[in-house]
Amino acid sequence: MTTAAPDLMHALAEPDAADLARLDAWWRAANYLTIGQIYLRDNPLLHRPLTAADIKPRLLGHWGTSPGLSFIYAHLSRLIRETGQQAIYLAGPGHGGPALVAAGYLEGTYSEIYPRVSQDEEGMLRLFRQFSAPGGIPSHVSVTTPGSIHEGGELGYVLVHAYGAVMDNPDLLAIAVVGDGEAETGPLEGSWKGVSFINPEHDGAVLPILHLNGAKIAGPTVLARKARDEVRSLFAGHGYDVIEVEGDDIPGMHHRFAAALAAAWGKIKSIQDDARNGTWDGVRPTWPMIVLRSPKGWTGPEKVDGIQVTGSWRSHQVPLSGVRDNPEHLALLEKWLRSYRPEELFDATGAPVDAIRELAPRGELRMSASPHANGGVLTQDLDIPDFRDYAVAVQDPGAGRAESTRRLGELMRDIYTRNPYTFRLFCPDETNSNRLGAVFEVSDRGFMESVTDADVKISRAGRVMEVLSEHNCHGWLEGYTLTGRHGMFATYEAFAMVSASQTVQHGKWLQEARNLPWRAKVPSLNVLLTSTAWRNDHNGFSHQGPGLIQVVLTQRGDVARVYLPPDANTLLSVADHCFRSRSYINLIVIDKQPQLQWLTMDEAIEHCERGAGVWEWAGTDDNSTDPDIVLACAGDVVTMETVAAAQILRDKLPGLRVRVVNVVDLMTLVRPKDHPHGMSGTRFTELFTDSVDVVFSFHGYPGAIHQLVHGRPDADRFRVRGFIEQGTTTTPFDMTVRNKVSRYHLVIDAINNSGRLPRGAADLKTWCESQLARHERYVVDNLEDLPEVRDWTLGV
């Protein structure tokens, strides 16, 4: 596109009488359909007077924000129709779901996707009856809503989703309607900084529309009560060109908003044209935003029972309650519905009249039909190098160390090179810290603010995204993948809990999308947790917490995947699988510090394909009969402690038959009926037997393993060690001691739980206890771990 011609800009800013009639008719129809969804179970076109039998038994939904959302939608449709602009609509006040459902219905998309909800009286009745009802659709702008990539049920994420959607998407305009209640949330407050990361050369644009209607569910909102100049200064300080529209006079508001939208779009096109034709000076653009002030519940009942409703918090949800039992309220509802003159909006069959149809753009330009809002249809497979080329050479298990995540960084470096517009890493200022810095060999950090000579690998052309906000990074990746691109969010393990609720909400979206055949699968949300609980000894207790594993385990099996690779080669194999997958949440947990390497690449691939396996070289079990004890492990540090414990038992208690099982895919522990990765009962028995006690050393909270093996044979025989909230600034080994998962604790557990104890077991137990006491004295006196622990390798 090129900068808009003056005559087009004039036409956009000053709608003629025909355009005004179309805008008004469309808006009235959308409001009518919104109210119908909240209230009606019959008589959709009011062919007869309303009766109590026409009203739903449960009145659910949110009216207050809906007329404003529909007003904006109508004007955007006109802009798209006139300009051909590709656009998607993200409703921050997602509880205005009936407004966006109405929009898709009026555009025809809804009936195309759901043919039973046809554009006639029968279809309209189905539209009304299904809303927020058993067997129907949710009340929010959910995954069932055509054109949506943002539900809005949990407030705070509309801007991060919008900014993620336009990265590497140069022709897309993402309209992000920010509710004034949502604007009070922490994630939203931090997300205005997205303007500092969008490059008009290769990114699209976000148009934030801050919708100030004055109230939230039960009181006023902060920004609505602030002085106008304070609001302008706030957003000007973030770097926005603030355009304001205010009023409740309908014809005047149509004129004013059309002019504001035209000005904003014209400014966006000018910025993009300058950047793409070589006349840009490189200074961060001042992108436009609109502040729209309109009454909450606009066009609804002014007063109910003598109390002000429109313009107040009382219009937030259902302005008229008790309609089935209150004849006065029933009469008010009918008057309200008839005020939109439905006989002018729908023909004799119940279909929208031509004036309404004419407002909508055509085909995929309809916001409810945009392929960008069904990103799987645009997704291209990543061109991924052969991960085997990045392997760590392993001659003998546990003989050498490497920084495992550094190899992953090298793989991602080359993915960046091969996929210059469809892959990004999102990380809160920790890319180098997490040993992923190889990506900087091919891409800088993206940044649109000023850059100094002292900055390293920072430029406006960069595509590695670093901002010190887990919410922004997580949300940007969500918007990026939902519109069809691939990426990874990498963060310190403890601080993944900052954005854990986003992980949950995205999982819910993916889960529900699987039930909709028209929703194409999108690239997975890949989350890498490093700087883990077990090796954040220099930061201390605040940085020690493996909680996200527990969070992801609660997601449904169709979506949730948790991987705990113990070394570099298993990490590479897992990452390759995750980058190729669709519509999952892939959680990968591994530390960044130098760690022992266990498996050759071929062994790692086989191990990852199985998800779990016996490490015969680590134990003394010959498989001729059941072992005396099973030592199982999942996670890198605890794997090292388990192998070390097995070595102690082999050397000091050689008569004890010990089997070592390592789990890399945590979901294999679950029964097959509970998760698609769950191993069969036969396979589970091959690894863990049916009756032998298992000492399980786990990276996360012990309860997770008990949850996963529930229903397996004699699940009570699993004795789990893991993180038990014992932490501080201390040595690496002391972290395992404090949480009772050290090699010495595991040996004692093996002795205590074994069904057969060879001679010498009591002496070995005493020796382990003395080693723990020796450790406690040594770390205090020497400020480091015992040499035989610190420098331990298998065979030493």
From TrEMBL:
Q: Which biological process, per GO, is one annotated for this protein? A: carbohydrate metabolic process
Residues of the Xylulose 5-phosphate/Fructose 6-phosphate phosphoketolase C-terminal domain: 592-793
Would I find Lyase among this entry's keywords? Answer: yes
**GO terms for MF:** aldehyde-lyase activity; magnesium ion binding
The record's annotation in Pfam families points to: XFP, XFP_C, XFP_N
The residues covered by the Xylulose 5-phosphate/Fructose 6-phosphate phosphoketolase N-terminal domain are: 18-377
Q: Which cofactor does it need?
A: thiamine diphosphate
Alphabetically list the UniProt keywords: Lyase, Thiamine pyrophosphate
Give the domain of life.
Bacteria
Q: Does the keyword Repeat apply?
A: no
| Family the entry assigns | Belongs to the XFP family.
Name of the protein: Phosphoketolase
